[in-house]
Amino acid sequence: MVVPDLASAIVQLLGTDGLGRTSLPVAIQTMSSLIGVPFFTQWATVDLTAPACPLFSLHLSNALRLVIQ
Q1: How far is CA 17 from CA 20, 24, 45, in A?
Q2: Residues of 3-40 as b/e, b for ≥16 C-beta within 10 angstroms?
Q3: What is the pLDDT of residues 14-66, one digit of tens each?
Q4: What is the spatial distance between Cα 26 and Cα 12, in angstroms, rounded to a whole number?
Q5: What does pTM read for this prediction?
Q6: Do 56 and 31 form a contact (C-beta atoms < 8 A)?
């Protein structure tokens, strides 16, 4: 599932370790106005050998949907 919302998009470039792992810690604020609000995340990886998108050499992940409860 892809949910494009460029008005609220954030781009963060991250490097990986030797095993291809990375992390991006995100703090969630304790605000009652965020309860029930869905957040979506998706990431892209660069693959110069066999990209899914030859124009930009990218692979896109599935989207992840998070809802604060």
Answers
A1: 5, 13, 14
A2: eeeeeeeeeeeeeeeeeeeeeeeeeeeeeeeeeeeeee
A3: 888 888 788 888 787 888 888 898 887 877 787 788 777 788 788 877 778 88
A4: 12
A5: 0.51
A6: no
